[in-house]
């Protein structure tokens, strides 16, 4: 069986990535979600629990990884993020590989917030970046009510700037409107199907 054509979907916080990923899924494209993979490996009995217990015992609560406690540790310890990445990135990559083995679809979407940051852009056939104006991005994130303006700014500072992501994209999906995003997704799928048909 030939390897599937991999679409890598990424974008900064509040840009509409989850909504866009859902549009690909609705169009019948099997979708692997990196955030969901992290939830799986953090759950009680998940693959990350014991390795994280070894580096940060207080983050383990009721047999699973407590994200708030992890965040506290990362705020206190400058080496925490690097230690976490060593544990989490290989396990997430393993989860992705398992998913790819279980699908026989010719096209697969990989929903990866850190696609560029972990150097995975060269592992996909097409890089799709979701983007929206900064004021809309800010409005969306703060409307969730899950973080303060300071937390949002701190996350933005850690993420690769939207302009850099757009510059490295094969395709940009504008998410100001649902219709605009839906049309762009349909165009991407049509383009990929045509590419495969002509291969």
Notes on the protein architecture:
- Helices cover 53% and strands 14% of the residues.
- It has 199 residues and is α/β, with parallel strands linked by helices.
- The protein folds into 2 domains: 1-30 and 106-199, Rossmann fold; 34-102, Rossmann fold.
- A 5-stranded parallel beta sheet has the order 2-5-1-6-7, with helices on both faces. Strands 3-4 form a two-stranded antiparallel ribbon.
- Helix 2 packs across helix 5 (80-102).
- The protein starts with a strand and ends with a helix.
Task: Write the SSE topology.
Layout: E1 5-10, H1 17-26, E2 31-33, H2 34-42, H3 49-55, E3 60-61, E4 64-65, H4 67-76, H5 80-102, E5 107-111, E6 126-131, H6 134-143, H7 149-158, H8 162-167, E7 171-174, H9 178-197
Parallel strand pairs: 1-5, 1-6, 2-5, 6-7
Antiparallel strand pairs: 3-4
Keywords:
single chain, 199 residues, alpha/beta, Rossmann fold, 2 domains, 5-stranded parallel β-sheet, two-stranded antiparallel ribbon, 9 helices, 7 strands, globular
Give the structure's gist in a few sentences.
By secondary structure, this protein is an alpha/beta fold.
């Amino acid at each position: 069986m030939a390897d599937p054509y991999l679409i890598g979907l990424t974008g900064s916080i509040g840009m509409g990535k989850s909504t866009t990923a859902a549009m690909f899924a609705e169009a019948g494209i099997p979708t692997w979600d990196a955030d969901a993979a992290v939830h799986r490996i953090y759950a009680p009995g998940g693959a990350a629990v014991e390795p994280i217990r070894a580096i940060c015992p207080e983050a383990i609560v009721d047999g699973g990884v407590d994200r708030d406690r992890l965040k506290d540790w990362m705020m206190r310890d400058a080496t925490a993020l690097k230690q976490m990445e060593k544990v989490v990135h290989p396990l997430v990559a393993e989860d992705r590989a398992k998913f790819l083995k279980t699908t026989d679809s010719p096209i697969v979407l990989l929903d990866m917030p850190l696609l560029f940051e972990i150097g995975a852009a060269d592992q996909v056939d097409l890089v799709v970046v979701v983007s929206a104006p900064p004021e809309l991005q800010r409005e969306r994130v703060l409307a969730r009510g899950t973080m303060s303006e300071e937390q949002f700014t701190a996350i933005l500072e850690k993420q690769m700037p939207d302009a850099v992501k757009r510059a490295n994209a094969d395709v940009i999906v504008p998410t100001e409107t649902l219709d605009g995003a839906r049309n762009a997704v349909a165009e991407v799928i049509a383009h990929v199907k045509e590419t495969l048909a002509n291969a």
